Amino acid sequence: xxxxxxxxxxxxxxxxxxxxxxxxxxxxxxxxxxxxxxxxxxxxxxxxxxxxxxxxxxxxxxxxxxxxxxxxxxxxxxxxxxxxxxxxxxxxxxxxxxxxxxxxxxxxxxxxxxxxxxxxxxxxxxxxxxxxxxxxxxxxxxxxxxxxxxxxxxxxxxxxxxxxxxxxxxxxxxxxxxxxxxxxxxxxxxxxxxxxxxxxxxxxxxxxxxxxxxxxxxxxxxxxxxxxxxxxxxxxxxxxxxxxxxxxxxxxxxxxxxxxxxxxxxxxxxxxxxxxxxxxxxxxxxxxxxxxxxxxxxxxxx
Length: 302
What we know:
Residues 8-65 form the HTH lysR-type domain. With 302 residues, the protein is α/β, with parallel strands linked by helices. The chain is 40% helix and 22% strand. The protein has helices at residues 10-22, 25-32, 36-50, 66-89, 106-111, 113-123, 175-181, 201-209, 227-235, 245-248, 280-293; strands at 55-58, 61-64, 98-104, 127-133, 147-150, 159-173, 195-198, 220-224, 241-244, 255-256, 264-273. The strands form 3 sheets. Strands 3, 4, 5, 6, 9, 10 and 11 form a 7-stranded mixed beta sheet that branches. It has a two-stranded antiparallel sheet with strand order 1-2. A two-stranded parallel sheet has the order 7-8. Strand 7 (195-198), helix 8 (201-209) and strand 8 form a beta-alpha-beta unit. Helix 1 crosses helix 2, helix 1 packs across helix 3 (36-50) and helix 1 crosses helix 4 (66-89).
């Protein structure tokens, strides 16, 4: 070990990581429970120590420089190691007990949470997990949940949010649907296709329209509040639907409608309330979920 090369403060590295993930000094300061000037000084000290520029202004936020991007993965690894050390210091979290309520969409609750929670159970068997599977946004400030998986960043300044991963989605259909109706050769061919939406039809039309996929309400022949029901309709060959690639990869009975088209990007945010700073059980679950969801998984097909 070259001890002479390790000359910077972990707090400075943590400030760099938080600012990179939050996108601004003010948001990172809130997440870490620091003042913005203190956080700014830590980043400046790290830049001076390393002899590099880590951020550049981008609109009203900050963008990580190419040099900073090259260092970011190393700092993330440090954060993971620091979290592991913290768990070990607390008796490997086996003495931590109590209930933690996690809110997620029905699709995320069914397809993303189970395997992660199985691992959490191994390291923190005393924590009891309540799962709220809902496609509405739980009010964390009213304690409808302690931690939430969301695809939109919360606007409330008293909530802590971490962007854990940028996910992708595509239009999918069953081969039986495509054999009956024909495989669309272009986006224009979708005008006569049958679609399913879940939740707000108009919102789905706007989001797909922003990706160049223009649908009419007449195309949305099926609608449900449940993402699980919508996905089953797609798998049964009734219609075309949109689904996260991570979920669709589990199934061999669906195919992407436009496999060569760029996927539709969407974020995965992990959100909690301020009690994260004072509750050991919330901190353990939040950090564990953030670590596990930051990496895409490759599940076996069914």
